[in-house]
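Whiteboard transcription, Tuesday session. T.W. wrote the structure tokens on the left side:
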């Protein structure tokens, strides 16, 4: 191929065997590169053909028989797997039962000659015109595998960091692939194998062909990305364009034009109506849905517009003996969906036409052998008014003539050429063997790496368990030591508590009454109440008794109400020492009962457990201070009362 052709944006390669046989001696191929305008020709070996396809990456590699490129199905699958992602293999002569290339070329107006180069050019031109079937062995599901790009080694402390880094990079690359697939709005499923520090591999099953993926196959540093399409159960042939089967068409002309398409088996394929499309638009719609064999109307005679459609397709025409009544049209179309009366009329015309031809279609079908297209035979019988036998004879004669025309004899190879072919086959076999050995080596290296990683993980786990056992032993020893210290402290506390109880008992024997404490000393007993509440007063009374003349110490004097204060007044205390402020209600009750109240800070109180004493002189001073303040408070109250009486008297005198 010259530089001009190789620089084209899109190419179609036509390929045909020039000499030899793919199943025997290494063949040579006639190759034609066609871009729609320019044609380049060459004769190459199979190995060079592969290199040429790899370099140029044509859109299509076209041939009249795919088994000129492969020995069997498995070999064909390998060839399809090898093709670049954007290259399709196309058989231009049909699917499993191909037609002669000469007939296909003649049908589509493509130049044809019996020489291999002419056949290769015809195949290229036909494929460029979307004639033929794409050969595929794979689905549109693609597997993207992100894995380690190198072995993790044999383990060790520094090897752990190395392994963690590789797995971390695999995880990072897998996230990048997932982000790219998400950005491309592709559906996928992900399967991850987690290992120490990240991922050993991540497999994405993507619902897309490889050339639609935003990522490509690559290998760099610690990671590699492999892309493989999911294989079908067998080889499939998919038409480059949707097949146009023979059909029956019903037309309802008018301001709104309607059309209905029915298959040769009576199946309703589609209905259509429009107020804007012209005749050309309706014809284009029909062409997309099949090749009309019969064009029908629901009235007699056939309207001129319907006749134009019939002539456009060179189809047979059908009209009823008389205009179809509405009730019959409703009955015939009752099992089918339509949007308006125009579609109903077109559909009724097509279905009644099928009823009229049904018996003839069945008779033709019974006589057509499997190797012939039933639709083509029916088309020729109905439109050409020929017998089935005559049509089959014509088709058989065409096939025989085409087969004779398409045959060509390979030329005899020279000894040098045969030696070259033999050496090329040997090189190909050796290259395939090397590739297989490399693949096997990579698989074994990966398996060894997995085993080494498992061994390293087991060693890490063993070291971790050993550290845990040492830590457990240390903690157990520490726990035993602390338990011993706890038991010693408990014994010591029990001993001290017992000693304290004995001292208290001896002290209480010496001072059986609180009054004994003050004998011969400037001390007075103090009875402590923890809170100024009824429950706390009851608890103190029960513990050591509250009697008249007691010095009472309220450790927390806040919050008491009138009833609580009255309960304390009932004990007739000598004085109440308080910490905190009394409520107004409690203060009023104690004042009215002439119970002295003083801050505890004014009296020095000494406490021993539940026992407390204060200096008599401090208590007397506190009582005298309260009496002085009580006199002042009484005088203030009397003054306020006199002022109130005078104010009320003046108010009454002023009113008179």
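and on the right, the sequence the group agreed on:
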């Amino acid at each position: 191929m010259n530089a001009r052709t190789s620089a084209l944006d899109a190419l179609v390669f036509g390929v045909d065997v020039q000499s030899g046989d793919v199943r025997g001696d290494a063949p040579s191929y006639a190759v034609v590169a066609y871009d729609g305008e320019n044609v380049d020709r060459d004769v190459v070996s199979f190995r060079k053909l592969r290199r040429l396809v790899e370099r140029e990456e044509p859109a299509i590699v076209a041939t009249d028989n795919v088994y000129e490129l492969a020995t069997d199905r498995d070999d064909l699958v390998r060839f399809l797997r090898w093709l670049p992602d954007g290259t399709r293999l196309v058989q231009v002569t049909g699917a499993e039962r191909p037609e002669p290339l000469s007939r296909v070329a003649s049908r589509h107006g493509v130049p044809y000659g019996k020489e291999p180069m002419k056949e290769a050019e015809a195949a290229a031109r036909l494929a460029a015109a979307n004639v033929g079937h794409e050969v595929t062995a794979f689905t549109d599901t693609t597997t993207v595998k992100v894995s380690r790009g190198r072995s993790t080694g044999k383990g060790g402390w520094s090897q752990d960091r190395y392994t963690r880094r590789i797995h971390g990079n695999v995880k990072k690359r897998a996230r990048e692939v997932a982000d790219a697939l998400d950005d491309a709005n592709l559906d996928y499923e992900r399967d991850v194998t987690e290992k120490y520090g990240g991922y050993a591999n991540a497999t994405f099953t993507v619902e897309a062909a490889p050339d639609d993926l935003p990522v490509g196959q690559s290998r760099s540093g610690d990671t590699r990305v492999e892309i493989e399409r999911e294989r079908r159960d067998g080889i499939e042939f998919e038409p480059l364009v949707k097949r146009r089967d023979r059909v029956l068409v019903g037309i309802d002309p008018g301001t709104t034009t309607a059309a209905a398409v029915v298959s040769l088996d009576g199946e309703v394929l589609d209905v259509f109506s429009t107020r804007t499309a012209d005749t050309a638009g309706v014809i284009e719609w029909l062409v997309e849905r099949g090749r009309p064999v019969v064009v029908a109307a629901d009235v007699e005679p056939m309207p001129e517009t319907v006749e134009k459609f019939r002539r456009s397709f060179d189809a047979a025409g059908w009209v009823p003996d008389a205009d179809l009544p509405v009730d019959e049209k409703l009955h015939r179309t009752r099992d089918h969906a339509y949007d308006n009366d125009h579609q109903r009329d077109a559909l009724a015309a097509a279905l009644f036409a099928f009823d009229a031809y049904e018996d003839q279609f069945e008779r033709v079908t019974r006589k057509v052998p499997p190797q012939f297209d039933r639709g083509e035979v029916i088309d020729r019988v109905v439109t050409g008014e020929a017998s089935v036998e005559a049509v089959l004879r014509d088709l058989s004669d065409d096939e025989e003539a085409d087969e004779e025309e398409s045959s060509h004899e390979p030329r005899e190879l020279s000894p040098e050429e045969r030696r070259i072919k033999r050496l090329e086959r040997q090189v190909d076999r050796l290259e395939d063997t090397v590739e297989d050995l490399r693949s096997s080596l990579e698989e074994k290296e990966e398996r060894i790496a997995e085993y080494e990683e498992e061994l390293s993980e087991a060693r890490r786990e063993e070291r971790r368990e050993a550290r845990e056992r040492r830590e457990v032993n240390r903690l157990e020893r520490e726990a035993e030591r602390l338990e011993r210290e706890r038991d010693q402290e408990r014994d010591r506390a029990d001993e001290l508590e017992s000693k304290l109880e004995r001292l208290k008992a001896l002290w209480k024997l010496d001072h059986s009454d609180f009054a004994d404490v003050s004998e011969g000393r400037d001390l007075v007993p103090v009875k402590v109440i923890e809170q100024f509440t009824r429950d706390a007063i009851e608890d103190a009374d029960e513990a050591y008794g509250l009697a008249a003349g007691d010095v009472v110490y309220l450790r927390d004097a806040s919050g008491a109400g009138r009833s609580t204060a009255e309960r304390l007044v009932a004990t007739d205390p000598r004085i109440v020492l308080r910490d905190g402020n009394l409520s107004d209600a409690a203060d009023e009750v104690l004042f009215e009962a002439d119970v002295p109240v003083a801050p505890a800070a004014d009296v020095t109180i000494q406490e021993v457990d539940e026992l407390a004493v204060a200096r008599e002189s401090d208590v007397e001073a506190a009582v005298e201070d309260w009496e002085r303040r009580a006199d002042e408070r009484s005088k203030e109250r009397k003054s306020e009362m006199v002022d109130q009486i005078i104010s009320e008297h003046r108010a009454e005198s002023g009113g008179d």
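Someone added at the bottom: The mean pLDDT is 83.
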